[in-house]
Amino acid sequence: MAVLLALLSSVMWGSSDFLGGLRSRIRPAMAVVGGSQLCGLIAIALVALVTGAWHGDAGWVGWAVAAGLSGTGGLVCFYAALAAGTMGVVSPIAALGAVVPVIIGIVSGERPSALSVTGLVVALLGAVLASGPELRGGAGARPVGLAALAGVGFGLALVFIERGARFDSVMTLTGMRVTSVAVFAVVAISLRSIGGLRPSDVVPLAVVGLGDVGANLLYALATQRGLLSITAVVGSLYPVVTVLLARFVLHERLARIQQIGVGAALVGVALVALGRV
């Protein structure tokens, strides 16, 4: 069940990142992330209110704030890098952020089976290859640096979400969204850049925000049913989804290395699942 939930979260993350990347090409990345985060906050806050989750243990607060700060920083860097038109550089580097929770999970005492470890390596390699890494030519220091920062931010956010979910998954995500929206509000006011969005952006940003918070919730639930080192990698296969959407929606051709990557990611997930049996 943990692997399935993590896999579903990667599908939702990949879809929302694809839509967010498209929108950031015509609107400021800061506005796109801030608007989508606000939509996500409204949705998860309603869930917390309806379920009464806010009455529980407050041990999630610190982890939620940390997740919000790291995740927000990662999203801004990711969208800004995508807007530069270097998806072949951005996605594979950002995908390597999954290594962060793997290392932390193993250091914390997790011991996945040999078959699962093999599957993790194959799946992560597949995610990188599916992104169509640019193996030739200069990509520029800016998109590479932004992608690396995005990966670290995403990786740390995965760890912090898992820690907060030990107390309450819904409230951890609520606190995470409150933090991210507050950060964007402060930045927007200080830079006097509150504008940038139009009424026509509401629906697209709502879809991106709901997809992102939904993916976070599925991932949080997955971490409470399986090892962090496994769920983090499976949940980080979103580049595969992003590139497949680009193929079928934008009609972009998949290079041979991307086809191999998609296949490797699927094989990796299968090995992880078998290793959990």
What does this structure look like?
Residues 2-131, 145-273 form the EamA domain. Keywords: Membrane, Transmembrane, Transmembrane helix. Pfam families: EamA (PF00892). The protein is an all-alpha fold and 277 residues long. The protein contains twelve helices and no strands. The chain has one domain. The protein has helices at 2-23, 29-51, 61-83, 87-95, 99-107, 114-130, 141-165, 169-191, 202-223, 228-234, 238-249, 256-276. The model has no long low-confidence stretch (mean pLDDT 84).
Précis, in short:
The chain crosses the membrane at residues 30-53, 60-82, 88-107, 114-132, 144-161, 173-191, 203-221, 228-250, 256-274. The protein is mainly alpha-helical and 277 residues long.
Sequence-ordered SSE layout with sheet pairings:
Elements lengths: L1 H22 L5 H23 L9 H23 L3 H9 L3 H9 L6 H17 L10 H25 L3 H23 L10 H22 L4 H7 L3 H12 L6 H21 L1
Helix pairs in contact: 1-3, 1-9, 1-10, 1-11, 2-3, 2-8, 2-9, 3-7, 3-8, 4-6, 4-7, 5-7, 5-10, 6-11, 6-12, 7-8, 7-9, 8-9
Mean pLDDT across the residues is 84
Radius of gyration: 18 Å
- Structural class of the secondary structure composition? mainly alpha
Oligomer: single chain
Low-confidence stretches: none
Report the total helices. Answer: 12
Q: In which range does the helix fraction lie?
A: over 70%
Shape: globular
Number of domains: 1
Written as H for each helix and E for each strand, in order along the chain, the element string is HHHHHHHHHHHH
State the end-to-end distance: 11 Å
Count of strand segments: 0
How would you sum up the major sheet? none
Strand content: under 5%
